[in-house]
Design goal:
2 domains; Nucleotidyltransferase, domain 5; five-stranded mixed beta sheet; binds zinc ion
């Protein structure tokens, strides 16, 4: 059986999905991201594990796409940097996958892969343009415009998390302050919770969400602040690229009920010439597998394109 692989490399876990050429799941594996060495060591292990996964599934790999938590030079296999993985800077992927480099079809930023997956088989099926926002520890994002991933000049397009929304000192994962991520990423939300609750602060955002749903005013206010920041960021994107669909993904997308009113208020307040009620806010359907589902979808799309002899101007890229 021929198989396509979608690999999603996260800060803590690598997720590996094998699908057949009809995009039916063959097998799924996850394992801790190898972090002790640099990318050379990590990809040696990832390659080994992927080959074993294919063997054990009775599959032959005919294509592979890799999603990384960082910046990729558009149209290449060159990773510029992965801020959350120490030492992962300026490397090409093909030489690190000597046994699989013939199968390697694409290297993509993880949020871009997630966006592609939601278009291919998720909440954004049939949508030609949308913004994808991944609410995790930080806030990642991708722009899907006119039927394809929009990468920008340097592969940095769609970084919603770093839109400035406040003059305050709230620290952002990028080293800046007052960005969307400072308030709407899990790290920022928990920092606010510690500021308000002190020693009584919840240890994770699920606990904070539970308190909010039980009517705790402080918890509600923290989620409203997160929603307001997201809403300002979304308004900025809507004003620039005029999309009407937002797909929220990542663990915090499950707290949309606690943030949506604030998001909508800010979108209404900060856009002009559009009816804010026409901006739809959807929750991604691919859940914690968004990155590897998207990578597998990119691999399948790239493979089909190559079979048809179409190069360069693709749906995926
Ligand atoms: Zn930032």
């Amino acid at each position: 059986m021929r198989a396509l692989a979608g690999i999603d490399i996260g800060g803590t876990l690598v997720k590996s999905l094998l699908v057949d050429e009809e995009f039916r799941e063959i097998s799924f594996r996850e394992f801790p991201t190898p972090r002790s060495g640099g990318p050379e060591e990590a990809f040696r292990e990832i390659e080994e594990r992927l080959i074993r996964q294919a063997d054990e599934s009775g599959a032959t790999l005919s294509g592979l796409a890799v999603a990384v938590p960082g910046i990729v030079t558009p149209g290449t296999d060159r990773v510029v940097e992965c801020p959350n993985l120490a030492g992962w800077r300026d490397f090409s992927l093909s030489p690190l996958l000597p046994r699989l480099k013939e199968a390697l079809l694409s290297v993509e930023n993880d949020a871009n892969a997630g966006a592609f997956g939601e278009h291919f088989c998720g909440a954004a099926r049939g949508k030609e343009s949308f913004v994808y926002i991944a609410l995790g520890t930080g806030v990642g994002g991708g722009l899907f415009l006119n039927g394809r991933i929009h990468r920008g000049a340097f592969g940095r397009a769609g970084e919603v998390g770093h839109i400035p929304v406040s003059d305050g000192p709230s620290p952002c994962g990028c080293g800046g302050t007052g960005h969307v991520e400072s308030f709407a990423g899990a790290r920022g939300i928990l920092r606010r919770a510690r500021e308000f609750y002190g020693e009584d602060a919840p240890g994770d955002t699920e606990e904070l969400a539970r308190r909010a749903r039980e009517g705790d005013g402080t918890a509600r206010a923290i989620f409203e602040e997160a929603g307001a920041s997201l809403g300002r960021g979304i308004a900025a994107i809507v004003n620039v690229v005029d999309v009407s669909t937002v797909v929220l993904a990542g663990g915090l997308a499950g707290a949309l009920d606690l943030m949506e009113d604030a998001i909508r208020r800010q979108v209404a307040h900060n856009t002009f010439g559009i009816d804010p009620s026409l901006v739809e806010i959807l929750v991604g359907e691919n859940g914690s597998r968004a990155g590897c589902v998207g990578a597998a979808a990119i691999a399948l799309t790239e493979l089909k394109k190559r079979k048809e002899g179409r190069y360069g101007d693709t749906d995926a890229s």
